[in-house]
Amino acid sequence: MKGNVVIVGGGPAGFNAARAVKVFYPECKVTLIEERENTQIPCSIPSVVAGRLPLEKNLYSLKKLRELGVEIETCKAEVLDTRERKLFLENGKTVFYDKLVLATGWRPKVPSVDEGNLEGIYYVSKTTEQVRKISEEVKSAKRILLVGGGLIGIGFAGEIKRALKSKDVFLVEVSKRLASGIFSPSFSEKLEEELTALGVRVLKETTVRFFEGDTRVRRVFLSSGDVLDVDVVIIAIGFRPRVELAQEAGIRLTKSGKIAVDEFLRTSADGVFAAGNCRVYTSVIDGEEVNAMLASISARDGYMAGINLGEPVVKDKGIVPFGITSVGDSYFGFAGYTEEVLKKKGKKFISTEVETRDGYPPALEGANPLKVRLYFDESGKIVGGEVWGRSKYVSGLVDFISRLIYEKLSVEEVISVQSVAFPSVTPSPLAQPVQMAALMAKKSL
Question: What distance in Å separates the CA atoms of residue 208 and residue 113, rounded to the nearest whole number?
Fold first, then answer.
């Protein structure tokens, strides 16, 4: 393939799309359009805000792409003309393309409550300027409110209280329990237990009614009747795709407002692909649309789109929703569909839970408790899992379970899957939690 390739967005999807094009189609001219030269790595922003990671050490730079020969336009793409195959940029330039990748990413969801133009109210953002402001505010504040009890809000609350013990940290969640759409009741309870042990005050089944202050926020009034004196508010209620450029160009969107793509990430416009958090994702489990705004999936998308520009050979079979967060020295992770989702979908399922340790023999110093819960549908196919533990082994288990779900393995196949075992770094081969949970499920089916 030869010609001009233009990529809009320099996040994980755009970055990897540019890299893939330069590797597989070196004769192409590649131009990447990104509003900022440096942004923050999203997943570690809570650590930056809490002061555990220097701001300058969390930068995501486009320098590597320049070294590969990618041209960078540091500005906003304002108008896309798919008929003439050109982009009008904020800096006055016009860029023509043969193939285009839209990797425009996400923006934070905004609640319906009026902020009153008060200072001290922030949304989660990966811009360095915004992260710097939040970090400075948190450092000087005494009372900090997190709005949103999902993985993002939990991560911020836990990191801030862990690093800055003298701060009063509040977490407000509208549901009856934390991360209710992700974790089962027992795992949600464990999450809240860990946050409370750190000193975070959790307020559930309540929302923000309004903010009050002079020029900056001083008080927050909740629907429960509680009134909180605060210095800083961080709103973390999720993200929505940035699709304005595509929408105004007439590219088809889904009913949920995401860019529609086919199995090779092609949009409704000829020569235009979409990758990352701006496009629709479907679950490999049942083919239904799912929310999965994750850097790891976006990065995968970038490689797929970059290769498929020349020849459509890498097919998107769907994704497995997954995620992980930490509170204190505990890690919580999930993959696929868990209890709340399966019930909402009206699916029949069985779940099994195993408690073991992440190292062996049990007397070995450093072995930590580990809990795994698996979900199987009525046919015996694995569809979900949850993991809690006190070591980074949790991350590996989430990946492992995610792969089992992606391959659509039956309970018998899960039992037969091999896994590595070594003292001090994995569970005992006689107590491998995934196989043990599958054995229990097999007996129940």
Answer: 7
